[in-house]
Amino acid sequence: MATVGVISSVSMIYFISTGIRPDANYIIVMALFEVIIIVSVFSNFGQTIYDESIKLNDVLYKCPWIYWNNKNRKMLIIMLISTKPLEVSCYKLVTLDHQILKKVSLNFS
């Protein structure tokens, strides 16, 4: 991830500093701005899904299971064992959450 950030940063700086065409600089800056917006939207979406799946697990733990019959208790145990936090990832290479924003911001600073 750091390598991609360094390569993209160096290439952007090169194209902006050489000034091949003035309108090309605006296109590159707009493309960089669009990438930043897309990454931030996807990471916020991924973090929201992760947080809500954690809340589901908390709700299951707080159920009044002592008043339930045995069948419902067994179902609750199965649900507690099988629930895991949902993570949105890109081909299971990068998990999209707030951590990716920290990594990207550290790579570009």
From TrEMBL:
Bilayer-crossing regions: 24-45
UniProtKB keywords: Cell membrane, Membrane, Olfaction, Receptor, Sensory transduction, Transducer, Transmembrane, Transmembrane helix
Cell membrane recorded as keyword: yes
Short name of one Pfam family: 7tm_6
GO molecular function: odorant binding; olfactory receptor activity
InterPro entries in UniProt: 7tm6_olfct_rcpt
Cleavable signal peptide: none
PANTHER family the UniProt entry points to: ODORANT RECEPTOR (PTHR21137), ODORANT RECEPTOR 19A-RELATED (PTHR21137:SF35)
Name this protein carries in UniProt: Uncharacterized protein LOC114345567
Organism of this sequence: Diabrotica virgifera virgifera
Gene that specifies this protein: LOC114345567
